[in-house]
Specification:
Blueprint lengths: L5 E3 L5 E3 L10 H8 L17 H15 L5 H8 L5 H4 L4 H7 L1 H17 L8 H21 L5 H4 L21 H19 L2
Antiparallel strand pairs: 1-2
Helix pairs in contact: 1-9, 2-3, 2-7, 2-9, 3-9
C-alpha cells in the first residue's frame, strides 16, 4: 500500500504535500492551522501559546513600519510568509538547518502554491524577499525578549535589535487560537481585496 502524501483539511480539501495545487489551498485552512501552531515550540509566556498566525501579523506590521509605502502585494506576502506551516508546523531555525536544503525546497513548493492561489508571484523578487526576511528577523527580537525569556543582551547575540519608528510601541500578548484566527483572516481579507484583479 502506497504511503499517503496528502492531508485532509477541515474545508474538505486534500492537499498533496509533494505536489501542492493552488486549487487545494483555502485561507480558512491556513488561518485555522497557523492559529494552532505555536512559535518557539510553545516555550513562551502567557495563558496562550504565541501562534504563527500572530507572528504573521507581526511581520506584516513591522514591514509596514520599515516601508510605510509598501504595496498590498508586499504586505500580503509578509502576512503569508510562513503559510506552509499550517501543514508542516513551525520548526525552529536550528532544526531547519540540521535537516538541510530538502526541507527548504519542500517548504518553498508549498509557499509557491499559496502565492499562486492568492495572486502573488510564486517566487518573490529578491528585494521583496529581503524586506520580508528583515521584518521576520526583527520580529524574533520582540518575541524573544517579550515572550520567550531572553534578556536583551542574550537576544542581541542572535537577533537584530529593532531600530525603526514605532518599535517601542510593539507589545506582544498571546491571544486565544480563535482570536488569532479571526485577526489573521480579517487582515488577509483587507489586503486580498487590494491585491486581486
Amino acid at each position: 500500500m502506497a504511503a499517503r502524501a496528502w492531508q485532509r483539511m477541515l474545508s474538505g480539501r486534500r492537499l498533496d504535500l509533494l505536489d501542492p495545487s493552488p486549487l487545494d489551498i483555502e485561507i480558512e485552512d491556513i488561518a485555522h492551522g497557523l492559529a494552532r501552531v505555536a512559535r518557539w515550540n510553545g516555550q513562551t509566556e502567557g495563558d496562550h501559546p504565541y501562534s504563527v498566525a500572530e507572528h504573521g501579523l507581526l511581520v506584516e506590521t513591522i514591514l509596514r513600519r520599515l516601508k510605510p509605502k509598501a504595496g498590498p502585494v508586499e504586505r500580503l506576502a509578509a502576512l503569508l510568509h510562513d503559510a506552509p506551516e499550517y501543514v508542516i508546523g513551525d520548526m525552529i531555525s536550528p532544526f531547519k538547518a540540521a535537516i538541510g536544503l530538502d526541507y527548504k525546497d519542500f517548504e518553498n513548493r508549498l509557499l509557491a502554491a499559496v502565492h499562486i492561489r492568492f495572486g502573488l508571484p510564486p517566487g518573490l523578487p529578491p528585494t521583496m524577499a529581503r524586506l520580508i526576511k528583515r521584518a521576520d528577523r526583527l520580529s524574533a527580537w520582540f518575541e524573544a525578549t517579550q515572550l520567550a525569556g531572553f534578556a536583551e543582551p542574550e537576544a542581541a547575540k542572535y537577533f537584530p535589535r529593532p531600530r525603526f519608528d514605532g518599535a517601542d510601541a510593539i507589545r506582544l500578548k498571546p491571544q486565544s487560537t480563535n482570536a488569532a484566527k479571526r485577526a489573521y483572516l480579517a487582515r488577509f481579507r483587507q489586503l486580498y481585496l487590494q491585491v486581486r484583479p
